[in-house]
Amino acid sequence: MNALKLTILLIVVSAAAILAADVQITPITLEAAKEQGRAKSRFFKETKAPIDGTNAIPKANVAYFQKSVMPILKKSCINCHGPKKSEGRLRIDQLNPDLLTGPDVEQWREIYNALSNSEMPPPDELSYALANTDRGGMVDWLSEELNKASLIRRNTKEHSSFRRMTKYEYDYALQDLLGLPHSLANKLPPESVTEDGFKNSSELLQISSMQFEAYRDIALKALKRATVNVGARPEAVTYIISMKQEMEKAAAIKDTKEAAKGKKNPRNLKNQQHLLDQQTNESLPFPEVKFAPKANAVAGQTPPVSPVVLVLPSSSELKLDLDRFLPDEGIMRVRIRAGRSTMNPNEYSSLRLMLSAHTSNDANFSQVISQRDIPVTAPATNPQFIHFDIPLSDIQRNPFRKLATTYPRRDEFLHIQNISNASKGDERLHVLIDTIEISAPFYEQWPPKTHTNIFVESANKGNDEVYGREVLNRFLRNAWRRPITSQEVDQFMVLFAKYRPGFSTFEDAMVEVLATALAAPDFLYLTQRVPTDKTKPASISELELASRLSIFLWSSIPDDELLKLAEQGTLRKPEVLSGQVKRMLLDPRSRRFSQNFVEQWLGLDGLNSVTHIPEPLKDAIYEEPIAFFEEVLKQNRSIMDFIHSDYAVVNEKLAAHYGIAKVYGPHFRKVPITAQTNRGGILTGAAILAMNSDGHDSNPLKRGVWMLKRVLNDPPPPPPPNVPEVDLTNPEILKMTLKERIADHRNKAACISCHAKIDPWGIAFENYDAFGVFRTSIKNKPVDATSELLNHQTLNGVDGVKRYLLTDRQDQFSRAMAHKLTAYALGRPLSFGDRADIDSLTAQLRKHDDKLGDLISLIISSNLFNSN
Amino acid sequence: MSKKSELLSRRTYLQGTGISLALPWFETFAVGKPRTDETPKRFVSIYHPDGVGLPLKNDPAWTDWSWFPRGRDKDFQLTKVLDVLEPLRGDITIYSGLSHPVARKVHGHSNADQYLTGAPIGGHGPYKNTISLDQAYAETIDSFTRHSSLVMSTNGGVGGPRGAQTQSFNREGRPVPALNKPKQIFDMLFVTSGKDAAGRLARSKSALDLLIENTRSLERQLSKRDQETLNQYLHAVRDTELKLVKAQKWIDTPTPKVDTRNLHLDADPKEARLYFQTMYELIYLAFLSDSTRVATFQLGRENGGGPHDLLSRAVGLGDAHHLTHEVKKPGGWKNLGTYNRYQAEEFGRFVQKLKDTQEPNGKGNMLDNTFAMHGSASSSFHLSRNYPIISAGGKNLGFNNGRYLKFGKGNEDNQAGAGIDTDAGWQGKVEVEELPLSKLFVTILQRLGVETNSFGGITGSLTL
Predict the structure, then answer these.
(1) What is the pLDDT of residues A329-341, one digit of tens each?
(2) In 3D, which of A270, A320, A317 has the Cα closest to residue A436?
């Protein structure tokens, strides 16, 4: 009863508060907040000369501390952080004020954070309140001392970006080097993740013998796939399925059936796949027959368009029984000539391939084998071929296909599926197919390009010694990303000479030798050699810069153009470098950067353990922040768009989830949104909200931790050991709302200090449920998404969070972005020693209007990126 | 340190990422350290498809032909199905009430795949398996024997997804192909010269030499700190070299000479008795010569087909899979029971032989150092519950035999999987409480000397 009264009271009070707010002033728009917050940046006010590595060694300013800082500390801090009480186990009186040589830099940094965010002294402790000038003086002193200390550290403590490639980098490198379009590195174990979520951090990239052996196996397998036994081109197995002929078969089957039954059995074929003769308008179901390859068939032909087509309505599939003739290896090319029955731009149809087999009664398996759905865009009046290339040895095949006996079933089924948003109705979009061709092994040319890239055309072919050196020179240079010395080639030729007698062909032996080169540290590691000229500053070489660039922007090794520029020694010229960065970002490979950086920055792996969201929606949710980042990057927009934007980047699936109308098709695009959409930026993306939930409801704690770690780069201290768990068997606790439960937990002494810092951020997101859907009530109670930060800042829901971040925390967020991107670019965790560099990067970023594209360029031309 | 890792795990939990995956991988794959005790610890698993006969209590066949014994613990009576094991009563343990929770509603035809893995493979769609019990043990003792494991089945190969013809799956969840021809198995164990292997090994050695040389020259050009990082690579190469040395040792060691009197290397499953006995004899000889310490043998595949179905000819009956579908015909329970009895008889013969052989280089007899398991992943009617499992031996590993252990609740009489008496019942509601079989697997791994507290997604062991 009491609880009920309290609730009513709360509703009345909050309603009153809303009314009052409405009456007072309409808050400024978020766009205006962006402007207002920007004007406050301390990075525009810095007048002091930037601290530079070439300046004289800085000294600690202890005198200022004694004169001006100590008195304030005594007055406002030491009562709680001194000999009487040592709150937070901090005793300021015992700290060494020399930050440059003393041991207490980390504590001073904490103090700096607490002071500059106005978290300390506690705002309710009026007797300890700090005058603004006092606070400013201390913050300035600390900031300067910390910067100097950072500089000192930098010259004493060594950081390194020397590391092996990550699993995904290795995979891309191998694909790019050999020209193979398919993933090869599944055999490698997943990478560990650092505290900030990075997988490419030098500290964690270990190597074991098992992994070393996996590298050797993978390399050999990849090389064997890239090369062929030169000689006669292998005979391909080719199926040609012409709908005209299938119609004839279907008619024959129908006749027999009708003869047997003595009556017609018309079926409604409207929503299922069926054959249609567009001239006679006759339709029949696709015949259930086994297909066999056509002898002497030539793949890649373009027969005249036939009026007889297969009609594939949305969400239907054609299942082809290919019997057991597909070869074990090689690429299977599936060519489908298809067109759209209608051209309504709001409807789309894509094709997807699946392979299945029955391995037992009551058991089968099926697997999507196409990497991505391919849209059908041509009109049915002018159908066009689309094709899929499937590596047969990489997909799950029917292992019984070679049995001499007929049991278990030996056939393999190819499914062609129409993935579409077409609505029901007579005029809806179908895919019409008149011919299908399946051919394997398929080669674009013979010998394939992947082969001639390694075994190049040469007049010296036939002279094993001379030609061997040619092959090695070229291959090693591309794989090791540097010119190769003749001694190095010698070493490999010695190995080749040992191998050669064991193999029947030059190529077979050489492939084994090349596999060894791909297990060498020169391939696996991102090297940074110490310059022989010790007088110069330790910056990386142009070649190393080329690799660092390509790993950063392509997650892979440099291409020929980058290598050539580095070999010529011109890559570092500013105009060349900026031209290359531009080229690299325009290249499709830069998509890997957006994907890998965003996944790691935001911790999207967390979505993999989410089970409450169905698959197609989950894919869209996962993709959104990556597509959003790409949009900001490609348009060189401000990183403040990550906090809030007046647009969303969505596809049809996600738009429906967000209630944004009129977005059609599976591709992501930028669409304008209004405040009523309750989206914009990445904080309200369903990915973030869903993975920081518990599967049923929001989890404000996870959301708060996520904000602090990922967005503000101010990770909360880890929970202390032995914290009491929330006792869910306690009926009193079960009765509480989530917010009340959290408040209850927070009020325990052991928890309060951290939770006061974390929870308010998460509670402000309470308007979003575990699916990231906006809500205004929870279990018939209105959502209460107001919270108060430690510095007494009130956050009024997500809008309040955005407004506060944009008005007061822009510097912190831009510094966080600079920090995260730099850590990713360098492949190592940043430490205290990098502080001065990050500050200077942030200052430049702010002066460049916070543009993401500019930030990338600034990082690439920074000292950090160019030094060892 | 312990404080830090505790904090880390909480963080990880909050974050919901897969951070915990990576580290154990390295640990698991660490090169095995030589053991101090030299007595081999062995594991063998025999799998038979189709489950066993479990007539309902009100069926006249129940008294004689229900597979599970009467009574419990030390006080149990074998029915006619298992009475052939009476002479070995003190050396065996029979288990009821165990199954893999993720498979309880999957049709038995799909289930051989997950018997030793406990993976949630389901009945259709995409397929992913995980490491099997035998391989999880084998990878820890890889370097002690010439072969890390001996994987056999009557049908051979890997079968298909949800139609496995092997019990063994590697760390990546891929099936380990089974051998099915006695001659081939014999040659691999006791004849093969290893010429190919020697060539491969020589090439690997040269490659490693080159890589070490190359790494050394890179090392000279790196900073001190980076040299330390590169050192890890060198260690990895060195560890690989050590493995090669071990492999070389096996190539240089002549294959053991064994007594071939009981082998019929041309035997075919059609000559069921000869084939059965030869395959068991090969496991026995492989163990005796310490060529391997791990073996699996699958008697055919689920859903019949192929040589397995012929094994029932040993007792003059028709195809084995059909026996399970004909239990309600006159004499049906007896026929299935008779075939199950024959399976037990052959297993018993193998167990007896291990018992009668002194451990060549250690304490006790061979059975004392071997955990031998015999079972199926369904009870009756392809119901994936209440797996019928017998184990034998393992006294020196800590197993106490001579018992019938009943786990779970609600099916004390072992009514064909909780009262189901038709093939249509396989998807039925799980009303009977059973324990995860993986708990037994954890116990087995622990007693074989593998430090682990979980298997197949299940944490904890059984108190036996």
Answers:
(1) 999 999 999 999 9
(2) A320
Question: Where along chain B do its domains lie?
Answer: 42-180+268-459, 193-254
Calculate the alpha carbon distances from A61 to A91, A98, A112, A148, A782 in Å. Answer: 21, 7, 16, 10, 55
Contact A605 B18 (CB under 8 A): yes
Residue (of A286, A422, A459) closest to A347 by Cα position:
A422
Run of H or E including A336: strand A331-340
Statement to judge: residues A266 and A393 lie in one domain: yes
Cα dihedral across residues B5, B10, B11, B16: positive or negative: positive
CATH number of B42-180+268-459: 3.40.720
Specify the pTM: 0.80
- Reduced 3-state DSSP string for A707-720: HHHHHCCCCCCCCC
Q: Is A271 on the interface with B (CB under 8 A)?
A: no
For chain A, how many structural domains are there in total?
Answer: 4
Q: Which residue in B has a C-alpha nearest to residue A212's C-alpha?
A: B236
Using alpha carbons, select from A815, A774, A771, A782 the residue that is nearest to residue A798.
A774
In B207-246, the residues whose Cβ lies within 8 Å of chain A are 207, 210-211, 213-215, 218, 221-226, 229-230, 232-233, 235-240, 243
Residue A396 and residue B10: Cβ atoms within 8 Å? no
CA dist A721 → B10, B18, B20, B211 (Å): 10, 22, 19, 46
CB A555 within 8 A of CB A597: no
Counting as low any pLDDT under 50, the low residues of chain A are 1-23, 48-55, 263-265, 720-723, 750
Length of chain B: 464
User: How does strand B92-96 pair with strand B403-406?
Assistant: parallel
Q: What 3-state class would DSSP assign to B175?
A: strand
| Cβ neighbours of residue A152 closer than 8 Å, sequence gap 6 or more | A57, A58, A100, A101
pLDDT tens figures, A650-690: 999 999 999 999 999 999 999 999 999 999 999 999 999 99
Whether complex ipTM tops 0.90: no
Helix (H) / strand (E) element for A274: namely strand A274-277
CB B293 within 8 A of CB B144: yes
A359–chain B nearest CA distance, Å: 6
In a 3-state reduction of DSSP, which class is residue A363? Answer: strand
| Separation CA B178–CA B298 (nearest Å) | 9
Instruction: Cis check for the bond before A234: say yes or no (omega within 30 of 0).
Output: no
Range of the domain at A541: 534-586
Single out the residue in A157, A185, A207 at which a domain terminates: A157
**One domain, residues A124 and A196:** no
Token pair in block for residue A828:
């190592």
Same domain assignment for residues A424 and A468: no
Q: Which residues of B touch A158 (CB under 8 A)?
A: 223-225
